[in-house]
Amino acid sequence: MDDIELEEGRTAPTTATSNGHSNGGYRASTLGRIRDELSTALRVEATTELSAGANGCTPNGGSNGTSNGPSIPPICGTRGAAIVIKDAKKSYPLQSGIVLDGFNMTVPEGTIYSLLGASGCGKTTVLSCVVGRRRLNAGTVRVLGLPPGTPRSGMPGPTIGYMPQELSLYGGFTVAETLKYFGWVAGLPSDVVRERTTKLLSFLEIPTEDRLVRDLSGGQQRRVSLAVTLLHRPPVVILDEPTVGVDPVLRQNIWDLLLRMTREGNTTVVITTHYIEEARQADTIGLMRQGILLAEDRPDRLLARYACQTMEEVFLKLSLRQQRALVQAQAAAPVTVGALPVPDSPDAAREDAPEPVVDSKDVLTVVDDPSLLQCKPVYLQNQNNTWACLWKNFTYMKRNPVPVIFVIILPIIQCGLFGMTVGRDPDDLRLAVVNDDVQCFPAMGGAVEGSVGFPGYPANCTTKTLRHLSCRMLDLIDDDRISIEQFSSVPLALEAVRAGKAWGALHFPANYSRFLAARHVWGRYASDKALNHSEISVWMDMSNQYIGHMLQASLSLSVLRFTRDIQEGCHWNTRATPIPVSIMEPVYGQLEPSFQDFCLPGMIVTTVFFMALLVTVGSILEEKRDGLMARSLSAGVTVHEVLASHVIVQMILMVISMIIVLVMLLCVFQLTNQGPLFWVIALCFLQGLCGMSLGFFISCLCDSDMAATYMGVGAFFPLIFLSGMLWPVEGMHVLLRSVGWALPLTLATSSLRSIMGRGWSIAQPAVYLGFVSTAVWIGIFMCITLITIRVQKRIS
Ligand SMILES: Nc1ncnc2c1ncn2[C@@H]1O[C@H](COP(=O)(O)OP(=O)(O)OP(=O)(O)O)[C@@H](O)[C@H]1O
Questions:
Q1: Hey, whose CA ends up nearest to atom 26 of ligand 1?
Q2: Is the ipTM here above 0.95?
Q3: Which parts of 116-211 fold into alpha helices (H)?
Q4: Atom 6 of ligand 1 has which residue's CA nearest to it?
Q5: How many other CB atoms sit within 10 Å of the CB of residue 610?
């Protein structure tokens, strides 16, 4: 390892990292000896390369003259504090209690700082504030002189390599794909990513780069996570428990690498670990409890100051001291309840410690040194990560084809079901018939067969010659829809209706044919008796409105056909119809409009809208759930880039689903479209974008599938009912009408109906209002999404 060549311009550490005290002590330990013995087994070359290149102060950020890395100018000329936290206060929204309460911490540049503390004391909170994932409620954080989150700080971004406690990687990617994605996000060219991937995987003993992350063991997964963090060789490395579940030898290798990175690469490392003794290798240890830093110093000085043999003892001593201080404070202020009072400052916890012999120049913390804040990193986050995100989204789809299958199969099923179920007239509706006029059929209860029972019209139609008219009437009833069943009496027929065996009962009175003939022959001179006895009585089951109306309409049409049939059969004037109204060819639509055509525009709009919404919410939540999104954001991807990459992918899926919907409905089921197809497609496309924007909003608000499902279903039903898809908006309750028109699907449905049913184009207000309303809703959803993201960022 001695053959490491420092790059030109790199300065070797002189103060904090060169003290050697902690390592000296450690080498004397058993673990130290094991490490020394095993050090020969290390891949010296890999370590050398990794550590040498980790220096943020190199002119190009590359190693050994490699100029392919991101353009990283020198950070600062003099060694100072890389991270300074002062008087930090932090609490979480909706959670009582303060997590950080006047927390101070100073991490010297080019050193390892180990932050120790019990579970839940706030370590992860501190780290997430350092990397810019969360914001403090009060106090300041400076990393390389700049507050994280400011535009030129490179934080979140390549300035910091952050390994979160959770895996925060997508299990469906291979190891190589994972590193490739994060390498691209950091702005590394592909060949550099490849080269570094090979070395890191070899060093970290990750079995194969083609293995899916989810198929690795927990320890291997954490090493992949560490590799992601170190890949772009950031000047500041933040590691939240990187050695959990890692083999002791490899754990030591990792520490060796970190030590070399700090000493030879001037990298600053902050690490949390549960292995307290392991932390003794760090240059500085910070002991944290209940949101404050109890002590912060070199390990040997902490041991000396508190006269302890182990760090565990130091921690115990400090914790007891803090506890005593809390009890005293409570006694002094007995009314204080709730959160335990803590000393005014972390220094207070140190004050009553036995005074160690410490030379002031040895003190690592240099918080008040103004030169610290002059140390300006000039990392520019100017690379566009949209392509990296796009590649990630497509790879995700390749590994996880369910959304794509969903986008293809669901519209086929939905449109197929729509075409085969909605709007088709019911058939085989049973009608109970009682014919007291004449026996039409050979046997009671037989089906109507042709014109059996009707002898035909005589040459000369008179009241005497016209016979068996009831049979002709039954013959003309639409037998595709209605099936007739004969009953011997009206009470029996009504009983069948009451029992749900027939939808209606129909009665021909005795001598119906004779009296009907009289009605036709005598016209206005017909007697009341003739008029009364030439009427058919009908009793309906109207419990099903649609079937009831259809049966009524069918019977009325049969009567009209029958009347015309008699007039034609008897060579009478056919214009003497009972109703003197002539229904002409309609201006728009057909004489017998179909319910399917009415529903079609709403069906298309709803399908495209909700498909886009579902797929968007599904893919974003998956990314959020894996923690991949949070990690991408920490690595420097912006929210806009995440959204842009999703918009592109979702648009492709949306176009596929839209084409399937239109082909199924217009070509397969031949539903009516009188208008220009271009405007139909344009409106569908906009509606898809609108669904996608609502999807963005929902996935911003929700962290779990369950919450998103509730929101999605909650939006689905009101939108369906109020959009005018099932029933005209004009028929809704007056108060709901204006609400209905204002919703995203309503004007678009009406617009599509005008295009498809009336053949109108964009010039008509009824059409362009649908486009305008959809565009406005897209704007509203996108704005509230961005506002929500900002608010969440502010309060996180
Ligand atoms: N997103 C959050 N919302 C609400 N409370 C939170 C959130 N994250 C952490 N906390 C709370 O803040 C406190 C500190 O949590 P934090 O994760 O920082 O502790 P930690 O020291 O890192 O613990 P560990 O060692 O177990 O990881 C805990 O009480 C935790 O419940």
A1: 119
A2: yes
A3: 123-130, 175-185, 190-203
A4: 92
A5: 23
